[in-house]
Specification:
The protein is of the alpha/beta class. Strand 2, helix 4 and strand 3 form a beta-alpha-beta unit. Helix 13 runs antiparallel to helix 14 and helix 14 packs antiparallel against helix 15. The chain folds into 2 domains: about 300 residues, Tetratricopeptide repeat domain (Serine Threonine Protein Phosphatase 5, Tetratricopeptide repeat), CATH 1.25.40; about 80 residues, Tetratricopeptide repeat domain (Serine Threonine Protein Phosphatase 5, Tetratricopeptide repeat, Alpha Horseshoe).
Length: about 400
């Protein structure tokens, strides 16, 4: 029997979830929830300081540009945080958003690209190097769903603001803070924003790295990173959930259940913990407990586009093509950024003989995918359609 798909929270485009802010909760001792004997120590893990550390070349370049701006008189018309925003050039290619792995500030600087969390960490590091203060912001975007291997990833979003300098005996009311967001189309849609502190950002970062390691099957590294995330903040829900998922993949169901129970004391309505906890209850035939959890989950299920995608796939296999079209369209209504939904729609239209819509949706799938294998696959099918 296939293992049920487990939920992870991730911040890849806006961290593997997300970016959820937590209410202030006192840190607790999680020693009882860690199980070092079940894992080997990974060779090396980055310290919190290393996440924000910049290479000497980056600092030298930054200071060289700053000195040039001072000497040229540019800074006479700009405050320092405005100059830094121009240097980062977030909207014009200074550093590029790339929805892939999570990088440290040093790695992001060298590669000139990163996901939203990587770019936020880099920007904060650059700001610190020139004494510009920042505010980190969790953005309340609707869930962005992805799937990798046996995991659903729920992506959140984070950005930051560069703050104007405080001058002695001067109360600044004319110079606003500058929001740096590497996804401006989202930043301008009026989503709610909530400040988070640097400790939360560090926990987010470690949770992202851990989720990436878990997906890659590197359980020992994932465990070490999750311990770092939870040492930073014992109540950080995404890391608690990821650690419980890791325990499940190691066959440590009792340890996972204990962790879900703790997570639900932190946030009784956390959907990811509830969903994964329900899987344990169902597998153990604890029907009454499962039913209570399921009441809450049933409402959340219809928000998951992969629920509709799964129904569409099943309908297609059963040759119920009109039902498949309906389910694929509902999946797209929930997540119109997933290439596989459009591919499913395309092949269904092709089977029922609507070649125009089959080609249209396949082109859409091709435009959305970033994976070279999928690009080749979709292009080959478009070529075959054209020669049909």
């Amino acid at each position: 029997m296939k293992r049920p798909i487990l939920l992870l929270i991730f911040l890849l485009s806006s961290l593997l979830g997300g970016c959820a802010s937590q209410k202030p909760v006192a840190d607790v001792d999680l020693t009882a929830y860690f199980h070092d004997a079940s894992f080997n120590s990974p060779p090396s893990l980055p310290s919190p300081d290393e996440l924000f550390a910049l290479p000497d070349a980056a600092i030298a370049e930054l200071r060289r540009e700053l000195l040039h701006s001072k000497n040229s008189g540019q800074l006479s018309n700009q405050m320092l945080h405005e100059w830094l925003a121009d240097y980062i050039n977030a909207t014009n290619g200074g550093f590029r958003y790339a929805d892939n792995v999570t990088r440290t500030a040093s790695e992001t600087f060298n590669d000139r690209e990163g996901n939203c969390l990587s770019l936020v960490v880099l920007t904060a590091a650059l700001a610190e190097a020139v004494d510009v203060k920042v505010d980190f912001q969790d953005i309340g975007i609707p869930p962005i769903w992805d799937r990798q291997g046996g995991f659903y990833l729920v992506n959140g979003h984070i950005n930051l603001k560069l703050l104007p300098q405080e001058k002695r005996n001067v109360f600044n009311i004319s110079t606003p803070a500058i929001q740096i967001d590497f996804l401006p189309e989202r930043a301008m849609q009026g989503y709610s924003k909530k400040r988070v502190n640097k400790s939360t950002v560090i926990s987010m970062f470690y949770n992202n790295l851990a989720a990436e390691a878990l997906i890659a099957g590197n359980y020992d590294r994932a465990y070490g990173l999750l311990k770092l995330a939870l040492v930073e903040q014992s109540h950080f829900l995404p890391a608690l959930n990821t650690l419980a998922v890791l325990y499940r993949y190691k066959g440590m169901d009792e340890e996972a259940e204990a962790l879900y129970r703790y997570a639900l004391t932190v946030s009784p309505d956390d959907m990811n913990a509830l969903y994964n906890y329900a899987i344990i209850l169902a597998e153990q035939d604890r029907i009454d407990e499962w039913a209570e959890v399921h009441k809450v989950l049933e409402l959340a299920r219809i928000r998951n586009p992969y629920y509709y995608y799964g129904m569409a796939q099943q309908a297609f296999l059963e040759r119920e093509y009109q039902d498949a079209l309906s389910w694929y369209k509902r999946a797209i209504d929930k997540a119109d950024y997933r290439h596989e939904f459009y591919f499913g729609l395309s092949r269904t239209y092709w089977v029922i003989g609507d070649e125009r819509l089959a080609e249209k949706n396949l082109k859409k799938a091709l435009s959305l995918t970033k994976d070279s294998k999928n690009k080749r696959r979709y292009q080959a099918k478009l070529n075959a359609m054209a020669s049909h």
